[in-house]
Structures are given as C-alpha cells and as structure tokens.
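S.,

Sequence below, as promised.
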Amino acid sequence: MSAKDKFHDIVRLALEKDGWNITNDPLYIDFGQVQMRIDLGAEKLLAAEKEGEKIAVEIKSFLNPSAITDFHLALGQFLNYRTALKAKEPDRHLYLAVDIETYNDFFALQFIQLQIQEFQLKLVIYDTETEEIVRWIS
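The prediction came back faster than expected:
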C-alpha cells in the first residue's frame, strides 16, 4: 500500500467541515484487472433527495523540486481514475485536491490553466493552515 499524501488528514478534515461524510479512506476501484486506490471517497446528502452527491478526491502536495513533474503524475493518475470511475461508479465525480499556495503559484500558469480546460479537471482547493476548503472548481 502506498503512503498517504502529506496533507491527507488536512483534506479529510476540510471535507468534513464542508459537510461531506467520508465513506472511503481510501476508495478502492478494481477495473480490467487493474487495482487503483483513490485517496478519499465522500458523500453529501441533499435534503430533497434520497441519494446525495458522491465524490472521489485524489490529494496531491506538489512538494518535489519540479512542479511540472508532479503535475504530469497527478494528471495521469486523475485521467486513469476518472476512466475507471466512469465505468464502475458513474455517479461519483473525481476531484484533484491541491493546496491554495500551489493553486495560486503553479495552477495559475497559462499552460496549466489550458491543461485544466483541455482535460476538464475538477479541483478542490484547500488551505493547510485553516484546514478548510477554499474553492471548488468544476
């Protein structure tokens, strides 16, 4: 089993503060003889519905000297996970969780913004100090 991301517990707490019920830690997906482990699965019950919104969250820290290398890895994981979820749990939406500093410094770059649009990445931005969700980008 791979190690949890440095900010795993912070993101989990931030999601809980935002009203999400953590249902899987981690969320295992088996598809086509490939086993995958997405950091978190969560659900939020909506008042008017019996079934709520379901999400999966992959957490990335971007702590390596090369942010673009971290981005390549994160994007590849995101696309693989999204494909598997689409087949196995089509009602669950996948988000990539990044901290606010990384989002403001790296994800604001023109090339990264183009990639976010091109690959329709959904992001959840969190603050490591307040341990809260700052922004959802769908």
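The two ends are 30 Å apart (CA to CA).

Coffee later?
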